[in-house]
Design a protein that fits this description.
With 293 residues, the protein is mainly α. The protein folds into two domains: 4-84, DNA polymerase, domain 1, CATH 1.10.150; 110-277, hpI Integrase, Chain A (Orthogonal Bundle), CATH 1.10.443. The chain has twelve helices and five strands. Strands 1-2-5 form a three-stranded antiparallel beta sheet, with no helix packed on it. Strands 3-4 form a two-stranded antiparallel ribbon. β3 and β4 form a beta hairpin. α1 (4-15) packs across α4, α5 runs antiparallel to α6 and α6 crosses α10 (238-249). The longest helix has 20 residues, at 64-83. The mean pLDDT is 89.
């Protein structure tokens, strides 16, 4: 008998050599928190498509995109067992995801941003939040920043690495390698942060070591602060959504410019996710224009 968790370990072992650390971290967490608690102690030969469907339909706290990833990881684990001829078929192959409505993005309001910024202690958390809200950078990109990435003369930040508890790597896509502007409102925070310590990384622990992830930030500040402030909980990633929606809504950038700032390969993500926040109404359209003259 082969336990499912034996092959989840094998799957992760191979993935460690095939994908970036950030993706490996994501898959590891999916297996540890979503998959192994259900299938881990089962005989992998006895898992049926109906078991997979029950598991899939029991997950109600994430959207369709996350469920597709969960199902893909689960299918990959069974595929390793299939390669070893431990099972005759992959039960995930016959399971189809139902159609899901896209999760609703609820950016923080300007008032909420001010409250969160004001509540941040006068150390790493304050600077992390400022960079997150005023650049839209991903968490791994923020804690991966080095002092050499900051150019105060040109007022730019160079993004060329990301960090997670499994190590440091380049960002998830080629377009994630980018240089973004430092807004004037962010500049004082950056200057203060540069003078805090002598480590090459911007964000370091009390032991003068670069952060591996943002777990401490989330548990020690983010969750309790939102609760205390009476703000509906949203993941720290929502700082990225808040930056993007405000940049569009206030007509500060074009969709193409926003895609470049966020590190997207095209404007597809911008139009799919953020287009409803563009401050324009069809009823305000100038009806007197001549299209072809």
């Amino acid at each position: 008998m082969s336990l499912f968790k034996e092959y989840s370990t094998i799957y992760l072992e191979f993935k460690k050599h095939e994908i970036k650390f950030s993706s490996y971290d994501k898959y590891f967490n999916i297996i540890e928190n979503r998959i192994n608690p259900i299938f881990g102690d089962m005989n992998i030969q006895e898992v049926k498509p109906s078991d997979v469907k029950r598991w899939l339909y029991s997950i109600t706290d994430v959207g369709g995109k996350s469920l597709r990833t969960y199902l893909s990881v689960l299918g990959g684990i069974f595929q390793e067992a299939l390669y070893d001829e431990v099972i005759l078929r992959n039960p995930v192959k016959v399971v189809r995801l139902p159609k899901f409505s896209k999760p609703v993005i609820i950016p923080f309001t300007s008032d909420e941003v001010e409250k969160i910024m004001a509540a941040a202690p006068d150390h790493n958390y304050k600077y992390y939040i400022a960079i997150a809200f005023y650049t839209g950078m991903r968490s791994g990109e923020i804690i991966g920043l080095k002092k050499s990435d900051i150019d105060l003369e040109k007022s730019t930040i160079k993004i060329e690495r990301t960090r997670s508890r499994f190590g440091e790597s380049t960002p998830k896509t080629k377009t994630s390698l980018r240089t973004i502007p430092i807004l004037e409102i962010l500049r004082p925070f950056i200057i203060e942060l540069l003078e805090l310590h002598d480590n090459e990384y911007l964000f370091v622990t009390q032991y003068n070591e670069p952060y591996l992830d943002t777990h401490t930030f989330v548990e020690s500040f983010w969750k309790p602060s939102l609760k205390e402030l009476g703000i509906d909980y949203r993941r720290p990633y929502n700082t990225r959504h808040t930056y993007a929606t405000n940049m569009l809504y206030r007509n500060l950038v074009t969709p193409i410019q926003l895609a470049q700032l966020l590190g997207h390969a095209s404007t597809e993500m911008v139009f799919n996710v953020y287009v409803k926040f563009i401050d324009s109404e069809i009823n305000d359209f100038d009806k007197s224009i001549s299209i072809y003259n």
